[in-house]
């Protein structure tokens, strides 16, 4: 007997959510053959003639008095940055634009991660080329965004985001005249780079890396905040969050992933501006939630969302669950919800994210158990059946052979009343599957959930493993 779609549970590959603010996000992906420009593609590290710079650790900028932080130009080699960490698609774009005579920089979180010896989630590129010029250089490319347009360059199955100095310059020109004024003694190149950095969200995202000259530009104290493990807004936090409230969620995601703390001012206005998230587009919310839950830092993200009062806005059912269990804002305890996502985090990484279907399914599974706790044996058989995608009868047989102890502290796991027969256990597994399917329907605004979870190999395998490892922790087995 197999778990049929009608008996099991399912989720669509693209989901839209009934939960407040969450909705579907669709990303167009196009395949891009680079054969036509392969002759231009070289490893960034081979451009030795471009790397001849002073090995000084700290070369001060042109006008240190203009900015509260010293302007710094740092040798990337001294920082331990390896260009081998840059992905091939990013190298393609960097090298092609460089060959065409344009300035190119890596900017944002990828530079921060390279400094921290972490694997970047993606690589954002800033160039002196106009976006229309980028379009002419790359055959598979489109301009996206209305307020702040950027280019999506498709290389193989990856998308590389490319922004232009000119676009940022037009945005910057809308600022006050005093903000635009170039300080005396500041050369034009430094001023253009500084202007761009000032438009970013957090100081640790305000670094700029020239991979050919191997220089990291730090105009706003990003390195100092990396050393202090702090997330700090570049502009005053109230101004920054008023300008773009999505920065609240981005800050949570960064702090969760890196284990950083917020500066006092940033922390204060995270709470003050929490209601502004209600104005965000549903698709933007879902994208930010996916970045939090699908890239290996879900547990820490949920804890921070709870700490700053954001969870009740984004995931009110889960917030209610924490309240009902007496969970406090700074609580370091765990529970089944957090344990599920902690086990998911062990299997993911920024460069190995999961499909959004997976974390939605985990939320639905947990909600089903909160509604009606189940015997550990039932949950085990269910997880094995989903993981294997095979016979329910075989999954039940395997589950009945489990001899290791299960987790007993979770309220969602009921105490066994008696020994199930095989048929009874199979019936209980089917009931649990139906309950999870119902929870999925409540999470989505689709009338029918038609694409089976077991048809998505990534989701099926990882989901089953996460559930089993949560119910039967390895540490209990070793004890």
Report on the architecture of this protein:
The chain is of the alpha+beta class. Among the domains are: 67-174 and 183-223, Beta Polymerase, domain 2 (2-Layer Sandwich); 336-476, no CATH class. Helices cover 44% and strands 10% of the residues. The chain contains 21 helices and 13 strands. The strands form 3 sheets. The chain has a 9-stranded mixed beta sheet with strand order 1-2-9-8-3-4-7-6-5. Helix 4 (165-173) crosses helix 6, helix 9 crosses helix 12 (298-307) and helix 17 packs across helix 19. It is elongated, with a radius of gyration of 25 Å. It holds the Pfam family PolyA_pol_RNAbd. One of its GO terms (biological process) is tRNA 3'-terminal CCA addition. GO terms for molecular function: nucleotide binding; nucleotidyltransferase activity; RNA binding. Residues 259-321 form the tRNA nucleotidyltransferase/poly(A) polymerase RNA and SrmB- binding domain.
Structural class assignment: alpha+beta
Task: State the end-to-end CA separation.
Answer: 35 Å
Radius of gyration (Å): 25 Å
Number of helices: 21
Unreliable spans: 1-69, 447-455
Helix content range: 40-55%
CATH topology of the domain at 67-174 and 183-223, anyone? Beta Polymerase, domain 2
Q: Strand arrangement, largest sheet?
A: 1-2-9-8-3-4-7-6-5
Query: Quick one: biggest sheet?
Result: 9 strands, mixed
Shape: elongated
CATH class of the domain at 67-174 and 183-223: Alpha Beta
CATH superfamily of the domain at 67-174 and 183-223: Beta Polymerase, domain 2
Beta content comes to 5-15%
Task: Write the CATH architecture name of the domain at 67-174 and 183-223.
Answer: 2-Layer Sandwich
């Amino acid at each position: 007997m197999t778990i049929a779609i009608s008996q099991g549970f399912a989720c669509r590959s693209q989901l839209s959510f009934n939960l407040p603010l969450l909705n579907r996000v669709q990303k167009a992906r196009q395949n891009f053959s680079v054969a036509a420009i392969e002759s231009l593609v070289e490893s960034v590290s081979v451009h030795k003639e471009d790397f001849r710079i002073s090995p000084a650790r700290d070369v001060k900028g042109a006008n240190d008095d203009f900015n509260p932080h010293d302007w710094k130009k740092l040798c990337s080699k001294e920082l331990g940055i390896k260009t081998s960490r840059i992905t091939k698609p990013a190298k393609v774009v960097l090298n092609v634009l460089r060959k065409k005579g344009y300035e190119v920089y890596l900017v944002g979180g990828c530079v921060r991660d390279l400094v921290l010896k972490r694997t970047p989630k993606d690589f954002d590129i800033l160039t002196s080329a106009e976006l229309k010029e980028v379009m002419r250089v790359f055959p598979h490319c489109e301009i996206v965004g209305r307020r702040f347009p950027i280019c999506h360059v498709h290389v193989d199955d990856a998308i590389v985001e490319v922004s232009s100095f000119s676009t940022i310059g037009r945005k910057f020109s809308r600022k006050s005249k005093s903000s635009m004024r170039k300080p005396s003694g500041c050369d034009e190149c430094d001023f253009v780079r500084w202007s761009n950095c000032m438009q970013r969200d957090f100081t640790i995202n305000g670094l700029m890396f020239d991979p050919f000259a191997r220089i990291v530009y730090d105009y706003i104290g990003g390195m100092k905040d990396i050393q202090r493990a702090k997330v700090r807004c570049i502009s005053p936090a109230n101004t920054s969050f008023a300008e773009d409230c999505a920065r609240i969620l981005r800050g949570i995601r960064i702090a969760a992933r890196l284990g950083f703390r917020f500066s006092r001012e940033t922390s204060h206005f995270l709470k003050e501006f929490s209601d502004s998230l209600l104005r965000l587009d549903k698709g933007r919310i879902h994208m930010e939630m996916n970045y939090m839950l699908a890239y290996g830092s879900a547990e820490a993200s949920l804890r921070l969302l709870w700490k700053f009062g954001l969870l009740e806005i984004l995931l009110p059912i889960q917030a209610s669950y924490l309240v009902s269990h007496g969970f406090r804002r700074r609580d370091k305890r765990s529970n089944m919800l957090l344990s599920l996502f902690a086990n998911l985090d062990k299997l993911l990484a920024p460069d190995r994210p999961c499909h959004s279907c997976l974390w939605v399914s985990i939320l639905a599974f947990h909600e089903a158990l909160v509604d009606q706790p189940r015997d550990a044996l039932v949950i085990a058989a269910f997880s094995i059946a989903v993981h294997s995608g095979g016979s329910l009868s075989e999954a039940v047989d395997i589950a009945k052979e489990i001899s290791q102890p299960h987790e007993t502290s979770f309220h969602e796991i009921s105490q066994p009343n008696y020994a199930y027969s095989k048929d009874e256990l199979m019936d209980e597994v089917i009931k649990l599957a139906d309950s999870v399917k119902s929870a999925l329907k409540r999470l989505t605004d689709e009338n029918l959930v038609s694409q089976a979870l077991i048809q998505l190999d990534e989701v099926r395998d990882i989901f089953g493993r996460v559930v089993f490892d949560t119910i039967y922790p390895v540490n209990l087995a070793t004890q």
